[in-house]
Structure formats: C-alpha cells, structure tokens
Amino acid sequence: MDYHWHIMETFNDHAGHIRSVRWGYFVRDGQYMQEVLGELTTLPLEAQGQPASAFSNDTMITWVQNALGADGQAQVHDQVNAHLAADKTRNPS
User: How far apart are CA 35 and CA 87, in angstroms?
Assistant: First the structure.
C-alpha cells in the first residue's frame, strides 16, 4: 500500500497572505484508492503575514502533521484504512 500526504489547495486573505491549507492523506492499494481531507486554519507563526508561495509543500505538510500530533495522525491513518476496507468490501475485485 502506498500512503502519502498532499497539499490540495491554499487559501489567501485579502492581502495575499496564507490563511489556511487544505490537505489530503491518501492510500492506494492496487485498484483501490481512498482519501481523508482536512483543512489547517491555525497556521504556525512563520506563516503569518506570508504568501503561500513562500513555502514548499513539504513545509506545509509538516505544519499539518505538527498540528495533528501523533494521535491525530494515527486517527487520520485509521480513518483512511477504514474507508479502504469498506471500499474493498463493496467492490471486491
């Protein structure tokens, strides 16, 4: 299985500063793919007053992971696995 984090979209305020990040956590297992999506609205201090273009996707993924913490990341992982298992049950190959 292949798991990965992805920054789906960034949102800016009226001044062009980043205000939130929409993220996704994906799993692919053969023909099956599932995702869990979320939005980070409480950004770290380094992001405040800056445009999204000032940061790499990897940096923004780190923000998401830090905000979720280990327990939150485990919950997201469990959730995407539950979606995958349900998909395999509904649509066996």
Answer: 11
